[in-house]
Amino acid sequence: MTPSGAAIVERGNTSKWLADNGFDHEFLGLDASGVELLKIDRDFLIPIATALYAYGFNYLQCQGAYDAGPGQDLVSFYHLTKISDNAERPPEVRLKVFLSRENPTVPSVYWIWKGADWQERESYDMYGIVYEGHPNLKRLLMPEDWVGWPLRKDYISPDFYELQDAY
Fold first, then answer.
1. Which of 9, 78, 117, 156 has a Cα-to-Cα distance from 142 of 20 to 30 A?
2. How much of the chain, in percent, has pLDDT values that exceed 90?
3. CB–CB of 17/51 below 8 Å?
4. Which residues have CB under 8 Å from 35's CB, separation 6+?
5. Contact 110, 131 (CB under 8 A)
6. What is the pTM of this model?
7. For 19-71, how does the pLDDT look when each residue is reduced to its tens digit (9 = 90+)?
8. First vs last Cα of the chain: how many Å apart?
């Protein structure tokens, strides 16, 4: 316990491994399921993701994004798992990259985990995060001529959207 009464949370194994190998990151704690949360600088995402892949995190379980609130950062997150034969509880880690609303760009992890393809496209479509190096970054859910990013908390919904004739 600290003097303020808060419990000290020890770094997880993945955070320790990254630190021991010279990868700069911030340990954010554990989520409710005990998964390590790591804050990664956008410039170090690809080197860290590549190292984690080599370390055995061979499965991108989920890539997504969220808006921390009006005027705050957008966050691109990556939930990684080590998949192996007969693993009862495979190790997991979640990387978070905090991005400025004014220039939300981050390198694509598509070239490490092909499963990021449509997941990064959805994050782009809903939040406007640009995944640099993605092979086909275009809208996935909204019409291609849609203006704005519907899941941003400061998004103002248009009064109407004119449906085009499908015939």
1. 78
2. 78
3. no
4. 79, 92, 93, 94
5. yes
6. 0.89
7. 999 999 999 999 999 999 999 999 999 999 999 999 999 999 999 999 999 88
8. 67
